[in-house]
Design brief:
heterodimer, A: 113 residues, seven-stranded mixed beta sheet, globular, B: 112 residues, mainly beta, four-stranded antiparallel beta sheet
């Protein structure tokens, strides 16, 4: 069964450092998403991406965040200067259409010290 | 504001017991509803979804959910749980845009 893969599974970084989280969506999917879950809180939407541009973003997704599809397979989330409150599990997801089922990766746990 | 709420934070039950997890949403328009499950150390998996039609939806692993429009609810049920159902369960909704809005999640612990 095709799946969404994410790397790294866990990253520990110092406050102020840049972090890039990587995702390989399902190959024929066109819609890509990042969500995050701070420990003990809801899964929150960050951003959706389609046709090489952001289609929607939440209030959380400020100027410190960016997404990119650098090649035909990867979808990355960059945090330019991490803060303590960025510590969370980050989930990538993809779907084949705007109303399609979202398939999630296993998540990347980010710990900012 | 559009939102999804789950009533139970943590549910503990014994094998063979019946399970019902509550989910309510707040939105007056058309909504797509989902239940996801996350087993320990694994990714979110779709259990079932409701877009339209029969309000009683059957999903994988013996789960079902009922959409009750008048109550803005989409409760998840399983008549007889197994130890392997220990997981976190998330209700989610798609309102008038692409993204999913999630509830806070319910941790289900099934004791053997």
């Amino acid at each position: 069964e095709p799946e969404v893969t994410q790397t790294p599974s866990h990253q520990v970084t110092q406050m102020g450092q840049e972090v890039i989280l990587r995702c390989v969506p399902i190959s024929n999917h066109l819609y890509f998403y990042w969500y995050r879950q701070i420990l003990g809180q809801k899964v929150e939407f960050l951003v959706s991406f389609y046709n090489n541009e952001i289609s929607e973003k939440s209030e959380i997704f400020d100027d410190q965040f960016s997404v990119e599809r650098p090649d035909g397979s990867n979808f990355t989330l960059k945090i330019r200067s991490t803060k303590l409150e960025d510590s969370a599990m980050y989930f990538c997801a993809s779907s084949d259409g705007p109303a399609g089922e979202l398939f999630f990766g296993e998540g990347s746990r980010l710990t900012v010290l | 504001a559009q939102s999804v709420s789950q009533h139970n934070h943590h549910v503990i039950l014994s094998e063979a017991a019946s399970l019902e997890l509550g989910c309510n949403y707040s939105y007056g328009g058309t909504v797509n509803l989902f239940w996801y499950v996350q087993y320990p150390g694994q990714h979110l998996q779709l259990l079932l979804k409701y877009f339209s039609g029969d309000p009683l939806v059957k999903g994988i692993k013996g789960f079902e959910a009922e959409f009750i429009k008048s109550k803005f609810s989409f409760n998840l049920r399983k008549p007889s749980v197994q130890w392997s159902d220990t997981a976190e369960y998330f209700c989610a909704a798609r309102f008038n845009d692409y993204k999913l809005s999630f509830g806070a999640g319910t941790t289900v612990t099934v004791r053997a």
